[in-house]
User: Which sequence fits this backbone?
C-alpha cells in the first residue's frame, strides 16, 4: 500500500502548526506567570489584570485554534466551525483580554 | 560615585529557608537609592558608609544576611543584640543601600520584615576631592518584581 500523499501532507502541516503553537503557549505562560507572581508578591491588582489580559489575549485563542485543528484531524467538522465559530471565540477572548489590559492601566496602583 | 551599582548579575535567593510556608514580597523601591542625585551627597554618603562599617553590630548584620535573608528576631539572636538595636542598625544600613528589606507575608496574613545584604564589594578611592566610596551590590529583584515596577510606572 502506498501512503496517500494528501494525508501525509495534512498531518505534516498539522504537526508543524501544533509545535509552533505549543512554543507560543509556553512563552505566553511564562510571561503570564511572571505577571501573576508580581500580583502575588506585591498584592498588585494591576498585575492581576495584566496577567488575566495576557492570558485571554494569547493562551486562550492559541488553545482554541489548536483544539479545532486537532478535532479536524480526527473528524470532519462543519465548515462554519473554522470559518466563523473559531475566529469569533478567539476575537471575543481577545476583546476580553484587551478590556483587562485597559482596566489594569486605568486603575490606580496601590 | 557613578557606576556604583551593578545590577547585571543574577544571584538572588528568595528561597524559603525554614519549614513555614511563606511568600516573600519585595518592596518596590529599596534598590538603588540615590542613584541619580549622588553628586552633592557623595561625601556625606561615604562618611555614613564608613560609620556603618565601623559599627560591630552593623557588620555582624551584614555577615549574617550575606547568603540568605533573616528576620530581625533571628538577627537579634545571632548578633546577641536587642531587637531595637537590630532595627536601628538595619534602618541605617538600608539608608546607605547596603541592606535590603523584604516583607514576608505568612499564610495567616501576618507580615514581618526580613533583611538581606546587598553589599558585595566596596572600593574606596582617594583623590584631591577626598574619598569616594563605590560598592557593587547584589541584585535583589526578580524578573517578576521588575515587571511589576515597569507596569506600575505606566
Assistant:
Amino acid at each position: 500500500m502506498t501512503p496517500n500523499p494528501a494525508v501525509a501532507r495534512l498531518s505534516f502541516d498539522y504537526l508543524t502548526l501544533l509545535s509552533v503553537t505549543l512554543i507560543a503557549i509556553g512563552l505566553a505562560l511564562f510571561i503570564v506567570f511572571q505577571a501573576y507572581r508580581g500580583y502575588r508578591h506585591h498584592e498588585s491588582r494591576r498585575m492581576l489584570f495584566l496577567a488575566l489580559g495576557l492570558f485571554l489575549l494569547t493562551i486562550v485563542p492559541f488553545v482554541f485554534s489548536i483544539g479545532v485543528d486537532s478535532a479536524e484531524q480526527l473528524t470532519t467538522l462543519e465548515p462554519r466551525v473554522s470559518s466563523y465559530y473559531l475566529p469569533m471565540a478567539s476575537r471575543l477572548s481577545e476583546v476580553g483580554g484587551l478590556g483587562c489590559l485597559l482596566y489594569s492601566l486605568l486603575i490606580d496602583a496601590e | 560615585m557613578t557606576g556604583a551599582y551593578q545590577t547585571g548579575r543574577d544571584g538572588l535567593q528568595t528561597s524559603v529557608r525554614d519549614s513555614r510556608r511563606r511568600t516573600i514580597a519585595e518592596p518596590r523601591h529599596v534598590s538603588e537609592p540615590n542613584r541619580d542625585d549622588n553628586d552633592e551627597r557623595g561625601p556625606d554618603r561615604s562618611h555614613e558608609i564608613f560609620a556603618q562599617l565601623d559599627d560591630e553590630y552593623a557588620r555582624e548584620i551584614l555577615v549574617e544576611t550575606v547568603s540568605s535573608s533573616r528576620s530581625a528576631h533571628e538577627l537579634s539572636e545571632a548578633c546577641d543584640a536587642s531587637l531595637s538595636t537590630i532595627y536601628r542598625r538595619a534602618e541605617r544600613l538600608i539608608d546607605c543601600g547596603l541592606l535590603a528589606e523584604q516583607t514576608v507575608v505568612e499564610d495567616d496574613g501576618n507580615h514581618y520584615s526580613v533583611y538581606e545584604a546587598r553589599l558585595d564589594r566596596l572600593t574606596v578611592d582617594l583623590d584631591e576631592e577626598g574619598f569616594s566610596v563605590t560598592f557593587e551590590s547584589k541584585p535583589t529583584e526578580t524578573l517578576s518584581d521588575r515587571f511589576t515596577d515597569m507596569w506600575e510606572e505606566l
